[in-house]
Structures are given as C-alpha cells and as structure tokens.
Amino acid sequence: MFLDKINDDEKNVFLKLQKDGPLTKKQLLDITGFKPSTLNRIVMSLVDKGAVVEIGQQKSAVGRKPSVFDVNIDEKYLLGIDISRTALIAILCDMKLNILTSIKMPLGIPFGDQRPVVLLPVFCSQIRHMLEEQRCKSSDLLGAGVAMVGPVDRKIGKTQDVNTFLTPGWDELKLGDIFSRELECPVYVDNGVYAAVLVEYLYGAGRNHKSISFFNCGIGIRSGYISSGGIIRTADNAEASFAHTTIVPMGERCTCGKRGCIGCYSSTVVISENVRRRVVMGEDTLIETPADRIIYSDVVDAAERGDKMCKQELRLAGEYFGIALANYITLLNPELVIIGGVMANASSDFYESVLESATANIYYKNKTHVHFLRGGTYQNNTMAIGGAAMFFEKYMKNPIMD
C-alpha cells in the first residue's frame, strides 16, 4: 500500500490534496509553505508511488495552464459502518470520502428477537454482496471504521455496558474482531457521535472552526465535542452523558435511576409516548394510526399537516433541549453547534424550538458567536461516513485520534 511508503512531507501534501484537492502546485505552495523545488520533488514522488495523480489542467488559467493534482481515489477504498438502535448502515467511500454505494438494515420489529451474533454475520454478508456489486475485493479496502452506540473501548474494539438495544448481547461485544474476521480487512471501532463530530470538523461544516459540537437526537441524545484539534471524551468514553444531566429537579424518573434528566423530556420515545397518552385521553389529532402504535414519524407527519397537539409536543421537547443546550454553550463556548439525528432532521418544529430556546437562554449578551446547523454536511449518513473518516485518520496517525 502506497501510504505505508510515504514520508512526513509527502503525507502532508497527500492530506492537503485528500481534503482540499484537486490543487495545482502553486496552490500547494501557498498551503504548505514548501520551496518550489521541494514541492515538485514531493509531488513527483507521490505520483511515482501511485498516491497522487495528475487529473488535468486548470481551466480558468490564462496562458500555459498548470497541471492539477489530486489523490488517487481508485487505489484503495474505505468502509464506514454505523450501528445504532434503529439501523445498521454501511457505506463504501473512495479516499476522499465520496459515497460510492450504501446499504441499510433497519432494526426493530423484524429483528427485535434477534441477537447481534445473528444479525452481524447477516449484515456482513450484505456488505460483501455490496462490495461484489462494486467489483471491490477485501484487498481493495484500506479498512473499515465502525461507529457504534457507546460506550466503546476503542483500544481493543469492544463495546462496554451497552444495554439500550431491543435485544441482549450488545455489551462486551468484540466488534473489531467480528468485522475484521467477516470482512477480511483492518477495523477500528469508536463511539458513533465522536465519529460524527470528527468528520464534520475535518471534512464538513466545521472545517473553519476551532471548536464544534455535534448532537444526535433520536431515541437518546448523544453528543460529541472537538476543541483545538482534540476530541473531548468523557471519563468512561460514554457519549450519552449530556442526556443524563438534570434539567428538572425531582422531575420524571430516568432509566439511569436519577430524576429530571434531559432524556426524560426530549427524545423520539418521549414525544411518541406523550402523544399516545393524549390521544387515549381523547384529544383531537390528525394521526390515523391506532394510539398504541403511534411512532415518531406519525407525530412529525401530523405536525406538518397542522396537528396542534403534535406541534405542541415537538416544540415542548425542543424547548427543554434548548434550555439544556444553552447551559452547554455557556460552559463550553463552541463556535458551531450541529443538531442532527432523526428528531432534528425530520422535524422543523423541534429544530426551530431548540434554536429559539437555546438563543434565549445563552448567558452571553452577544449571542452571534455561536452558529447552529441542522443535520450537518452528511445528514443521516454522518456517523457511517464518520466511521470511515476515523479509520483513515487513525491509519494516517492524525494526533486527533490519540
């Protein structure tokens, strides 16, 4: 593999092309600060090793048009895998994280009685079929990154106390070994929301910011934060810590045993349960689904059609989340806050309520320092793409992965 044979200067140029390319030598000179003779030697060495290719000439140039270079995206591929409580997603990417193809295995009712020892081999079989359709062999993969609901022991690729799935068997699971054996390639495993915030920071909307936060709002609330080039991890590497901070003293009893956690007031489960209860009590609604089968998508669909009760519940959940988010912003002062996950991506009522509540409660008088973004660059694929990015950055020994 050519990446094993490049020196530090070559790696510097390669990574600039990987994230910013295609670029001319003049543009690379401006970015890297190398002398022209040094840069020319580096670029030619990368071309000889197959890491970089000349893809054409700069069309906008006047006179002799300079050559344009980019990474060789056809040499190796990356696989990103997202394991959440609602679906398993696998995405095949090229070396610049462009999506080539993907598969999704929904979890829930069809698979509710199956354990990961059954599901994961089936999922890997589907991944292998996906690769075959792309004429991609295991040897063509640089590796795979698995973004998993935490907490995860990333040093050995094993889940820890994961007990939020419909079926048992997800805790103390050696995911790295399973996927490495099934897919015959190197594998790196980490928390899903850390993968999400990493890919936005290095490749997406957060590239021009020193500090960004990513919130995945769904069945639970998962949060990740990067500041000055470092992922800020909790003591036990758990990504749900924010969800279990208290917002209502002596409030609703949480699954964690405490009272008043944010997750008690803002999640797809809570919203759906509140709507079901109000429907049973006889309140008017546009939802046609029987009360005991109402799910979050029913609530969002009805709200978009003007259902006042559903709008009220979505906005109330957003208000609670926004208050907690204001405390978070006041404490950590991120430049960019990305609110993703199915709650935000599917419902403008929820997202707009979050923004109204958060901006109203931030301590700072000048509140323009923080920018908000709905969904992020990669929307519902963020964690899977983040998994691929994490493997690549780990492989390239980026200090952010230490």
Series of H and E elements: HEHHEEEEEHEEEHEHEEEHHHEHHEH
What portion of residues belong to β-strands? 15-25%
Question: Main sheet, how many strands, which sense, barrel?
Answer: 5 strands, mixed
Instruction: Give Rg in angstroms.
Output: 23 Å
Coarse morphology: globular
Average pLDDT works out at: 91
Explain the overall architecture.
By secondary structure, this protein is α/β, with parallel strands linked by helices. 38% of the residues lie in helices and 19% in strands. It has helices at residues 8-20, 25-32, 36-48, 116-133, 175-183, 192-202, 268-280, 296-304, 308-332, 341-346, 348-361, 382-395; strands at 23-24, 52-57, 67-71, 77-83, 87-93, 99-106, 141-148, 152-153, 158-159, 187-191, 211-217, 221-227, 230-232, 336-340, 371-374. The strands form four sheets. It has a five-stranded mixed β-sheet with strand order 6-5-4-7-10. A five-stranded mixed β-sheet has the order 13-12-11-14-15. Helix 6 crosses helix 12 (382-395). The longest helix is centred in the last third of the chain and has 25 residues, at 308-332. The chain starts with 7 loop residues before the first helix and ends in a 7-residue tail after the last helix.
Topology:
Layout: H1 8-20, E1 23-24, H2 25-32, H3 36-48, E2 52-57, E3 67-71, E4 77-83, E5 87-93, E6 99-106, H4 116-133, E7 141-148, E8 152-153, E9 158-159, H5 175-183, E10 187-191, H6 192-202, E11 211-217, E12 221-227, E13 230-232, H7 268-280, H8 296-304, H9 308-332, E14 336-340, H10 341-346, H11 348-361, E15 371-374, H12 382-395
Parallel strand pairs: 4-7, 7-10, 11-14, 14-15
Antiparallel strand pairs: 1-3, 2-3, 4-5, 5-6, 8-9, 11-12, 12-13
Helix pairs in contact: 1-3, 2-3, 4-5, 6-12, 7-9, 8-9, 9-11
